[in-house]
Design brief:
Keywords: ATP-binding, Nucleotide-binding, Transport. With about 350 residues, this protein is an alpha/beta fold. It is built from 15 helices and 12 strands. It has 2 domains: about 5-250, P-loop containing nucleotide triphosphate hydrolases (Rossmann fold, 3-Layer(aba) Sandwich), CATH 3.40.50; about 250-340, no CATH class. The two termini are about 40 Å apart.
């Protein structure tokens, strides 16, 4: 089926502002490649999680998907229609269909407005509900995000609410205009661990009830596994692996995904007694990408070919793809692949 939202070979290059040192030396900083041929397809009613460390480009992909940023090249298609260059009324209509939830709920809410005013605002902006119906729509939405009694939450100010309650209101604000797609960028990572699953379950319940589609951006693979039907793993601006959540977790075909799984919290609990399992090496920066496979400086399986040739995207069946020269072997035998060869 046709994707509802399609990010088509996006490339996003930022030219760094010449800093003090480079002005002094006359050497320009290299451009930062925040997205390098990123293609993601979002299908109606599903959740696609985009997983990556900071600097992976996952947030850039989300910002382009909501047209907060325009890509250097490549396009965004909504229901098959090119939307990349939209402005004015057409952009506003697109925004009514594709909403965003941010990591920090404080950013989404004006501290001087009551909850009711904050929730009514998008309804008025998009002219969706007559003024006389605003209060009822707000109360209904507060019920949907399980803030009860709705009447007393409606008249509260953000400063009177907890972080978890505020994030529920930010979710309500994004969903009150009944968008088709919601891009959620780390919506629970700032919340107390004890209330995260409540917010995730709320989002899943709303999806069951409304059929809304989620693009869920997270650094946490276990969160992705819990939330998503499909997972895309990003690293230094590129998608390294993608596939149905279950096959990607149980039979990852990219060494980076394997390392992320080993580093995931539920794995860590039973893993060798180390305080922290860390990926070897530092994430290279998006400027000055290494030649060949962009993951080779950190890859425990790297071979000479990996330094010379960028790996093609290998199709592994069942919708799983991975950009590694040894994807088929890694899928079968994991990180033992080379050491047993
Ligand atoms: Fe590692 Fe080579 Fe695969 Fe890159 S192509 S992930 S360096 S084995």
């Amino acid at each position: 089926s046709k994707p509802i939202l399609h990010l088509d070979t996006l490339r996003m290059v930022y030219n760094a502002d010449p800093g003090f040192l480079s002005r002094l030396t006359g050497r320009a900083d290299p451009p930062v490649i925040a997205a390098d041929d990123v293609t993601l397809e979002l299908h109606a009613g599903e959740t696609l999680a985009v997983v990556g460390e900071s600097g992976s480009g996952k947030t850039t992909a989300g910002r382009i998907a909501t047209l907060q940023e325009r890509p250097t090249s490549g396009g965004v298609l909504y229901e098959g229609q090119e939307v990349t260059g939209l402005t004015g009324a057409a952009l506003k209509a697109f925004r009514a269909k594709v909403q965003m939830i941010f990591q920090n709920p404080y950013d989404a809410l004006n501290p001087r407005l009551t909850v009711s005013q904050s929730l009514a605002e998008p309804l008025m902006l998009h002219g969706l509900v007559p003024r006389s119906g605003l209060r009822a729509a707000v109360l209904e939405m507060l019920e949907a995000v399980e803030l009860r009694p709705a009447e007393s939450f409606a008249d509260a100010f953000p400063s009177e609410l907890s972080g978890g309650q505020l994030q529920r209101i930010a979710i309500a604000r994004a969903l009150i205009i009944k968008p088709m797609v919601v891009i959620a960028d780390e919506p629970v990572s700032m919340l107390d661990v004890s209330i995260r699953s409540g917010v995730m379950n709320l989002m899943r319940g709303i999806q069951r009830d409304t059929g809304v589609t989620y693009l869920y951006i997270t650094h946490d693979l276990s969160v992705a596994r819990y939330m998503a039907d499909r997972i895309a793993v990003m690293y230094l601006g590129a998608v390294l692996e993608e596939g149905p959540a279950e096959s990607l977790i149980s039979a990852a075909a990219h060494p980076y995904t394997r390392l992320l799984i080993e580093a995931a919290p539920e794995h860590r609990a039973t893993a060798v007694k180390r305080n922290r399992i860390r990926l070897p090496g530092d994430a290279a920066s998006q400027s000055g990408l290494p030649p060949g496979c962009r993951f080779h400086p950190r890859c425990p399986l790297a071979q000479p070919i990996c330094r010379e040739k960028a790996p093609p995207r290998a199709a592994l069946g069942g919708g799983q793809t991975a950009s590694c020269h040894f994807a088929h072997e890694v899928k079968k035998t994991g990180l033992a692949t080379m050491t047993t060869a």
